[in-house]
Specification:
This protein is mainly α and 436 residues long. It is built from 16 helices and no strands. The protein is globular and about 55 Å long. It starts with a helix and ends with a helix. Keywords: Cell membrane, Membrane, Transmembrane, Transmembrane helix. Its main location: membrane. It is found in: Cell membrane. This is Polysaccharide biosynthesis protein.
């Protein structure tokens, strides 16, 4: 009777959280999208091309610090999410390894950044300053991710959303100020600095929230640290090769164009990426509310029901976005400006490639938050086989073929990840029957 009486309350609370987080994240994405679209519209194509390439390099650098570690916090904490010292200590132990991997990332990314930047003639004072500021931003981002992960696991989504909202407002205000000034070749550095300042504001606000909630800056003792390290290695080890591979896949479109295309093509790929921001709202809400719930749930029918409803809803929303891109591409192009009007016939291809990548990532995260990381290395073979076949038959010569390459890659990833999820789905049902 007690459980039944609590159910409406729990449901109402959950719905309020979803509405609140969804509303705040929607505003954040809209505001961030406006900032991004302002950058697309105001910056000259060559300047925006250098900004796009620099962003891709930083994305890869952050990705190298991951190597599966970002998927370890939730399963390591597990059902001890109410034990604050344990949550803080476990997350700190995981992120310590990410800081160490930053050195490896720099050794990989910096030479590539230099060769391509010199090849496109971007090595001027403004671009070098932008690169230096962006590197500082990577340090801030890692710290922000750590603090945000702790708040997410502890369930303080209201605070996290409020802080994210403030950070977004700061960023868009600074971006508007930068673009309004006649900075010329220094405009890219100003835009990057706006993001770094917004990240620093977020860190300060999260630290203040920690102090108000009296969340201690806990370190695990030697025995607990050893146990966490062992669990992290168990979870992350099968993900190392796929993580390296898929971090490259995440920026491969920009990198292919930067190697074989013109600065104009790099700018077009970057501008298209701004349109895909429409998909970010759902991803942010699911990472804040859904995946922690999946990590805490006991294996069985309840877990299967959460996963089933989540994926049906997610894929349904993605299908609606794709239909709008196919039938109404002219309205999406309005957001980018007349400089990109020629890209209108390719809008649906952009959204299809982005949706496939997002869907594969959604299935992947549904597995990893349960610690189900086995078998991921085989995805490399599947993806490489599909990509090699595509390059051999079609090749990469223009933006359409580059987007086709991304679609083929996305199809391979979706099939593989949902195949693994189907296998786990059966296992979760079997686990439920065994307990009975």
């Amino acid at each position: 009777m007690t459980d039944d009486s609590r159910t409406p309350v729990n449901l109402a609370t959950r719905l309020r959280k979803i509405a609140m987080v969804g509303g705040v994240e929607t505003f954040g994405v809209i505001a961030g999208g406006i900032a991004g679209l302002l950058i697309v519209n105001v910056l000259p194509k060559d300047a925006y091309a250098s900004y796009t390439f620099l962003t891709a390099c930083l994305t890869l650098l952050l990705g190298v610090t991951d190597l599966g570690l970002a998927h370890c916090c939730l399963p390591v904490v597990g059902q001890r999410a109410r034990e604050i010292p344990w949550v803080v200590g476990a997350c700190r132990q995981v992120f310590y390894r990410r800081w160490l991997l930053l050195v490896v990332g720099l050794a990989i990314v910096v030479p590539y950044w230099f060769v391509n930047s010199r090849g496109h003639g971007w090595l001027n004072g403004g671009y070098l300053l932008a690169s230096a500021v962006a590197l500082v931003g990577v340090l801030f981002t890692l710290r922000e991710h750590y603090l945000g992960t702790v708040l997410t696991i502890l369930g303080h989504v209201t605070s996290l959303s409020r802080i994210g909202l403030t950070s977004t407002v700061v960023r868009i205000a600074l971006v508007c100020a930068v673009l309004a000034l006649p900075l010329g070749p220094w405009a890219v550095a100003g835009v990057v600095a706006a993001t770094v300042v917004a990240s620093s504001v977020s860190i300060l606000l999260i630290r203040r929230d920690f102090a108000e909630r009296e969340i201690p800056d806990t370190r695990l003792d030697a025995a607990d640290a050893k146990r966490v390290d062992a669990q992290v290695i168990r979870i992350a080890k099968p993900l190392v090769l796929p993580a390296i591979f898929y971090q490259l896949q995440g920026v491969i479109t920009v990198f292919l164009v930067s190697l074989f295309g013109t600065s104009s093509m790099v700018a077009e790929v970057g501008a298209f990426g701004r349109l895909a921001m429409a998909l970010v709202v759902v991803d942010r809400v699911t990472h804040i509310l859904l995946f922690p719930a999946i990590a805490r749930a006991e294996a069985g029918q309840a877990l299967r029901a959460i996963v089933w409803r989540a994926h049906v809803s997610y894929l349904g929303m993605m299908a609606l976005v794709l239909l709008s891109a196919y039938f109404l591409p002219q309205y999406w192009i309005l957001l980018l400006g007349e400089k990109y009007r020629s890209l209108e016939p390719l809008v649906w291809m952009l959204f299809l490639s982005s949706i496939l990548a997002a869907a594969a990532g959604f299935a992947f995260s549904s597995l990893t938050v349960r610690g189900a990381t086995a078998g991921q290395s085989y995805s490399i073979l599947v993806t490489l086989a599909v990509q090699s076949l595509y390059l051999a038959v079609i090749g990469v010569s223009d933006l359409r073929s580059v987007l086709g390459f991304s679609i083929a890659t996305g199809v391979a990833n979706v099939i593989f990840q949902y195949g693994l999820l189907a296998l786990r789905w059966r296992q979760w049902g079997a686990d439920s029957q065994v307990r009975r």
